[in-house]
Amino acid sequence: MPTVKDIHEHFLAGAAWEDPAKSVDTIKAGDPSRQVTSVAVGWMATIYDLRKAVDLGCELFITHEPTFWEHHAPELKNRNAPGGREKTLLLEQSGMAVLRVHDSWDKWPQIGVREAWAAGLGLSELVCISDDGWCAMYRIPETTLRDFARQVLARVKPIGQDSVQVMGDPQMKISRPCIGVGCYTPGMDMISKGADCMIGNFDGNWYYWESRERFVECKAAVITVEHGCTEHWGMKNCADYVARTWPELKVHYLDLYPRPWTVIC
Question: How far is it between the farthest Cα atoms of the chain?
Fold first, then answer.
């Protein structure tokens, strides 16, 4: 059986673009030498997911986002603050380890966060990738912004996104939408490459005046969803990958993170 450290090192070894010394992909709790027989994988190590993982008998929880609400390792500030104390106590009592797989999985070839997000949206005809490799533009049959937004909503509604927010003329023609990786959302460089609809999330640096409103003035529409929505399919792929790589393990995909819901007048 692999140890927590074995699994951690496997992900680091598969991400040649990542600098392990600067990565947030570290072990957040637990004994690195502990053998793993059962593992849970989820987008975020919420208290709800951690409790469920403990109930399932998992020795390891693999998370994409922070456990203690700080992006950079080692996430010390909130471990004994409200909310953090409950997680800390649960992890200490159970002995379950937490491993963050973020920088490596964002760009993992074919099944990582960006490509899983595209596949989930039904985007398959790649036109180009941004110079930094974080964003990608796709070609679709020309349609109106209103109809494309409806298509996006139809795709994301089953995973808990009850609405999408749209900016731009509902009748404008869309044929080259662009996506990013999680909160790394498309920018002006992709509009210069021909993108006509920017799909991102609220967690990115998408200030209304700096990004979204400017994009519309530059004749590109904007569709926004929640961060967890953009990475949901990528983390399901991560769970499947763990199961294929270590077939001796019991692997559970957990998605108990809270979803925002929309009130419409």
Answer: 58
Q: Which of 128, 159, 150 minimizes the C-alpha distance to 227?
A: 159
Quick one: tokens of 55? 């109930």
Q: What 3-state class would DSSP assign to 21?
A: coil
Comparing CA positions, the residue from 147, 156, 157 lying closest to residue 179 is 156
Contacts of 21 (CB under 8 A, 6+ apart): none
Residues in the chain: 265
How many other C-beta atoms can be found within 10 angstroms of the C-beta atom of residue 166?
18
Which tens digits make up the pLDDT trace of 16-51? Answer: 888 988 999 999 999 999 999 999 999 999 999 999
Burial of 90 (0-12, 13-18, 19+ CB in 10 A): middle
Residue 181: CB atoms within 10 A of its CB come to: 25
- Per residue in 112-141, pLDDT (tens digit) is 999 999 999 999 999 999 998 899 999 999
Alpha-carbon gap, residue 171 to 224, rounded angstroms = 18
- Burial (0-12, 13-18, 19+ Cβ within 10 Å), 16: exposed
Separation between Cα atoms, residue 235 and residue 37, nearest integer Å = 20
- Domains defined for the chain, CATH in brackets: 4-102 (3.40.1390.30), 113-228 (3.40.1390.30)
